[in-house]
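Hi V.,

Quick status before I head out on leave. The structure for the redesign project is tokenized and pasted below; the design run finished overnight.
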């Protein structure tokens, strides 16, 4: 039985009294390097006539992946908890815990409208700085909305004990280095050491943390945010972690936050403080902490290519950013000494294989 037939039977089981149900337009999208995403439309008939549902399926990626261990259920629970909040997250309907339908577990969520500017900004948009500014402000409003979610009312307080968030995060990314490294990584290992040495006390306010609030995870209709995507790293913790991540990526070339009209990083943080009532602190440390996290994720991607688990040229290209990110993190913490980088890239033969495969 093919994918369309399996999904048709699955939806028929999950939509009560659905007659003549069919699935159309299955489209696998390639954006991102973690969860697999399918777009499709479900048609059926019931007592109210013809019905249509545009959905998005997020499936666990085939392991090993970038973000191990991969917790699809937590993503589903976060999105379910956000349904009554001001956060413009997709509504979720069902989760399938088995691998019988798609070969891995998945959940089904609504397909929200909007455009995502992941890899460049159209010239017409660059020429409209007022619209750019409003889009950026809308992103900050949504980040603030995430950090303002009532954890008790939504039930999201059960997701994690955020009081140990920073300790847990640092240990996780340090352990990921140990898991994938092929040899000593003096600069990256020094960054881990200094991040630990200079770690501030975690703020007393625990919030929902998105984990990856980059511009590419926001969709827009016109000037307004229509959706916030990619909740794979969401948990309960320190909201400054999201601010550090957003600060780190804010000036990225080709992003809507880096073109004329975009607020400065300081303006972004000031707007967030005003909306949330939370005072920012130790911003350089949080940027360094997130440079470490980002560098390790890209190091894992390099490992996946080197070990033959992936031929994704984007993972190969991203591996070249591990060292600059490491240096950025060290610089934020006042460390500018020359340190060897170690084996960060896939071996030369694997780089050659991936590039040759791309030509075919």
């Amino acid at each position: 039985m093919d994918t369309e037939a399996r999904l048709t039977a699955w939806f028929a089981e999950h939509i009560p009294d659905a007659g003549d149900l069919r699935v159309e337009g299955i489209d696998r999208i390639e954006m991102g390097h973690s969860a697999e995403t399918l777009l499709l439309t479900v048609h059926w008939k019931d007592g109210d006539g013809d019905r249509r549902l545009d959905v998005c399926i997020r499936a666990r990626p085939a392991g090993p992946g970038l973000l191990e261990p991969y917790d699809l259920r937590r993503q589903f629970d976060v999105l379910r908890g956000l349904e009554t909040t001001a956060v413009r997250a997709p509504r979720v309907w069902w989760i399938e815990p088995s691998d019988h339908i798609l070969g891995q577990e998945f959940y089904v969520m609504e397909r929200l409208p909007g455009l995502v500017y992941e890899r460049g900004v159209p010239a017409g948009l660059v020429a409209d700085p007022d619209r750019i500014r409003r889009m950026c402000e809308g992103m900050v409003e949504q980040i603030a909305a995430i950090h303002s979610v009532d954890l008790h009312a939504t039930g999201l307080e059960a997701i994690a004990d955020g009081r140990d968030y920073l300790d847990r995060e640092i240990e996780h990314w340090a352990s990921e280095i140990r898991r994938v490294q092929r040899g000593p990584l003096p600069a990256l290992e020094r960054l881990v050491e200094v991040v630990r040495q200079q770690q501030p006390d975690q703020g007393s306010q625990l919030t929902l943390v998105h984990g990856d609030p980059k511009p590419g995870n926001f969709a827009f209709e016109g000037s307004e945010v229509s959706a916030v995507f990619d909740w794979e790293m969401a948990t309960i913790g320190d909201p400054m972690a999201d601010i550090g991540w957003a600060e780190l990526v804010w000036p990225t070339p080709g992003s809507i936050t880096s073109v004329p009209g975009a607020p400065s990083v300081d303006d972004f943080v000031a707007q967030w403080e005003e909306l949330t009532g939370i005072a920012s602190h130790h911003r350089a440390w949080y940027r360094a902490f997130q440079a470490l996290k980002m560098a390790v994720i890209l190091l894992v991607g390099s490992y996946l290519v080197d070990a033959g688990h992936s031929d994704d040229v984007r993972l190969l290209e991203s591996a070249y950013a591990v060292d600059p990110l490491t240096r950025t993190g060290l610089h934020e913490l006042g460390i500018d000494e020359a340190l060897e980088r170690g084996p960060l890239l896939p071996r030369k033969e694997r780089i050659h294989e991936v590039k040759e495969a791309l030509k075919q």
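Above is the designed sequence. Residues 283-306 form the longest helix (24 residues).

G. will cover questions while I'm gone.

Best,
W.
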